[in-house]
Design brief:
The complex is a heterodimer. Chain A is α+β, with helices and mostly antiparallel strands. Chain A has helices spanning 36-47, 81-84, 107-115, 137-142, 160-164, 171-181, 189-196, 211-214, 221-234, and strands spanning 3-9, 21-27, 66-69, 72-75, 87-91, 98-100, 103-104. Helix content of chain B is 75%, strand content 1%. In chain B, a hairpin with a 2-residue loop joins strand 1 (260-261) and strand 2. The chains are: A alpha+beta, B mainly alpha.
Chain lengths: 247, 362
Amino acid sequence: MDVTFKIRRRNPDLPDLAKPYWQEFLLKDVDPTDRVLEMLHRIKWEQDGSLSLRRSCAHGVCGSDAMRINGVNRLACKILIRDVGDKVQVEPILGLPVIKDLIVDMEPFFDHYKQVMPFFVNDDPLPADGRERLQTQADREQFDDTTKCILCACCTTSCPSFWANGHYVGPAAIVGAHRFIFDSRDQAGGERLDILSEPNGVWRCRTIFNCTPACPRDIEVTKAIGEVKLAIRKGTNVGIIETSAIH
Amino acid sequence: MTSLVLTVRETLRYRGAIGQWSWVLHRLTGVGVVLFLALHVIDTSWAVFYPDLYVKAIAAYQSPLFTIGEFGLVFAVVYHAFNGMRIVIFDYKPELWRHQGQAAAAVLVLTLLVLAPVFLGMLSHVVDFYMTEAAIASDKMLDVVVFSILEQLPFIAGFVGVLAAAIVLAALYSLIRGEAPARGKYPQASPIERFWWSFMRLSGILILPLVFGHLALMHVVQGVFDITAAQAVAGTMASNGTIGAVPSAVEFVYHRWSYAAGGLFVWRVYDLFLLVLVTIHGFNGLRYVLTDYTSGNDFARRTAVALCTVMAAVLLAVGGASLLVPLERDIVDEAMAATAEIYELRGEELPPELEAFLSNDE
């Protein structure tokens, strides 16, 4: 089949192309099971070597090829042509500065992530056997979902609150905080709840629900944000999440 | 502004699901209701402080532009109320999130189901008004519309005044406090936004029955057209025998707010609760909306916060005062000259009682 790609481009090095513009490319002999990322490669390799995009593993694990495909945030490597049809519109994710074509500056996104202390905090001495800190399966299940995040920014850049206000910490950082707030072995949950109770923290979420379907890892993002809100409201991370508890 | 333009444009372009559109409607209806609230509280307080102005305000409400607006207002309140309940449910039970799309659709259906009989009821008041002798003479219609727009000029002037006050306050605040702390550092944890989050949800739940009762009584059982032609005042004992011979909007308010059951001024208490809850809920909501789109500019954001605070304070003060001062029957007489003006504006003959009153007065 023939597929038309319409790509949002900009090249800050060339004055004529510094302003964003749309460019169309026609691809022949496309298989419905081809991935959008492969087709972007074909455009770059066969038609226009200047097309710039970011990708690393190309298998939905590293999270570097987030882009807005046909109006929604997706990983180009996880979307097949049969999912998007023969007219594909690709543009950079919104809310982060565009560096070139489909590449955005992820630093502001990572800055927000760093602010929620996305690392394990526990100053107690190690258990007597010197091995791992144990946890029940039910305790582990509380944050199981939010361990899946790959920091692709699909959720944060689908959020109208983030588009309006780049200072809003955003869904991904809250997911990152959730992963530690609800970890029974971690000791900095209270600090993270304080950080997220800032005016630009979790309260900027207006439960629009754009983030949840945007997640390529099927993380229940809005639910995680809701749980963090409830934990801040109650001042504790205990008793917020009911797990099905596999014993 | 760029933030607002960008968000509006991209919300239209992003293919978000129904939740995104619920949010858009929730914001639009919320802002619409809060703007009307400002008008309504000031207008209604005039019944006590400037009865003649109140008569003119009600005449403006009876003009076609406001009639269309009234249907929009009732839609906005009902949708905002039901969608607010949806938000509350998913905020307190986030694990139910899979049903939020269905819930958003259910909110729309429920809104339409409730609005169908409500709009029929409201429409019957409109039809009654234009079919009876109280109708506006057709050659006077343009005058009435122009009048109803001109009547709003003091509000625009008032708003400009409040905006100027907000800018001054924001400037003073900036002088004292200096620049806001560096962005994206999350330096101070503050319980204040947690309080507002809980307040919006709790007040929303409390407002729902109050505002539905208010709408049912003042827009469906007795519409704005009945206020000047009432044979009785719903929710009070005032009826034919006790209401004055000259139908006047002030008369209606006088009876409503004078009505005491067991020594308690039922409607004053009711209206006071409604005033306080709706004003704070509404202007905090407006603050949410405005600060979302002014976060890039300290001064604009502080002005937005000051604007919401000043407007809420003015409404609480003026509306609260009108509900707390003792009412005298004089206010009805004070409004007679203005009532006569409205008759003339609409090209109607003065009722004999009104003519008698005015000639006695001279």
